[in-house]
Amino acid sequence: MTTTEPSRYFAADQLGAAGVFAHNGDEGPRALNITAASSNPKMFTLPWERPLATWPADLLANLPRGISRHVVRFVHVGEEIYAMKEITQAVAEREYDLLRRLQKLDLPTVTPIAVVTGRHDRDGDALEAILVTRHLKFSLPYRALFARNLRPDTADRLIDALAVLMVRLHLAGFYWGDVSLSNVLFLRDAEAFSAFLVDAETGDLHAELTDGQREYDIDLARTNIIGELMDLSSGELLPSNVDEVEVGDRLVERYHSLWKTLTGTEKFSPDEMWKIEKRVNTLNQLGFDVDELEVKTSEDGNRVLVRPRVVDAGYCSRKLLRLTGLDVQENQARRLLNDLDTYRASTWRDDDSLEIVATDWMREVFEPTVRMIPPEYRSQIEPAQFFHEILDHRWFLAEKAGHDIPMREAVQSYIKNVLPQYKLDTKAVAELNEEADSGVMDEQSTFGDDDYHPDDDPDAAVWAG
Questions:
Q1: CATH superfamily to which 142-263 belongs
Q2: Range in 15-29, 54-68, 83-97, 143-157 with the lowest mean pLDDT
Q3: H or E segment at 104?
Q4: How buried is 229 (Cβ within 10 angstroms: 0-12 exposed, 13-18 middle, 19+ buried)?
Q5: CB-CB contact of 40 with 80 (8 Å)
Q6: Do residues 140 and 127 make contact, with C-beta atoms less than 8 angstroms apart?
Q7: How far apart are CA 99 and CA 387, in angstroms?
Q8: pTM of structure
Q9: Domain residue extents for the chain
Q10: Tens digit of pLDDT for each residue in 448-459?
Q11: Which among 71, 118, 186, 240 could bridge 86 via Cys, Cβ 3.0 to 4.6 Å?
Q12: Nearest-CA neighbor of 92 among 65, 63, 121, 119?
């Protein structure tokens, strides 16, 4: 396949890896390799021959970035938005492979798209590789969340989300090695947040983690988080009543509590078998499915030992997906299922199939509500989160008025008085991104043009280990 530039040729193999061969005068062809799980033809049109920091503004998406050691940009690629991270080849290839393995385990991470290696500028000088991941829609880095007028307990809710993420990753055998708020993206999940791993450079996947590996991750997380919150405090972004050390300690406490609940062994007497069902219900309420229970009796036969063997997250979200086709976060799913139950009771349809009732609830309640999201906010808030917050706002209005409030009236009030807090203006995004770029350690512009070799860059290559 020939492009509009006669000096370039593209080829793709059956595995989805594509090679671009850029000719450079008499020096012979230089190979640009794009390895991807699936092909997006628009990828070939990007200016790979330019350092990422110099890509034209018309390609970039104006989204807030988190602090990173490397140059990161959000780029429009056709209808998609991809996150591009410029990094050494060894690190890019390793992280791409690791993210793909984590995706196959259905863990909450960003989605790997491609790794681009063999980059050279038009003079033939080497450029770093680029790791490409899909932008996690509706997500924000933690600093962008604190740039808004949020509730005083936001820090605690972020920490709770991070604890859940760490437990899920550790259960799957993933050793993180660099746990921090900066390496996570957050999605609103009803009254809570969901956390997604965005940086796996230092991670490793094992069959099972030792207690020492888990404790190292926890201790490092506590140290990093306290430092990050102190940094927020110095910038007057952290509420004055937040104690950074207490928040760090909360992560340790929350992690250990959840780990024990999910993996610990409980002892019952033979006439207390009802407690097994209670244990399963407790795990379901935390958002986890129990695929298998290990049940043993003690040697004297007086005690029953029960321990979950395989635990998976997404109990409510899978149930809602099965009923409605909505793929949402766990707490959002729980709230929507509760509203579905309320609708079923209020329409006197307890005897009807839940699947049929769910179809009517979608048509009569959920869809008309989320269609009222103003166009300018549709990239700012998920429909499920919008619906959840409408229910909260409607309850608040009804309590204040002393009577029920029609859904349409509640939506209009919410859009006018609450929804504007979701929007980060251009100035705020620019400030966040300027701050994010201040943490970059391995941008090519910091080195002399004649002696820059990406694979020898100490600031970039150090993370390959």
A1: Transferase(Phosphotransferase) domain 1 (1.10.510.10)
A2: 15-29
A3: helix 89-104
A4: buried
A5: yes
A6: no
A7: 31
A8: 0.79
A9: 8-135, 142-263, 266-313, 338-422
A10: 444 445 455 444
A11: 71
A12: 119
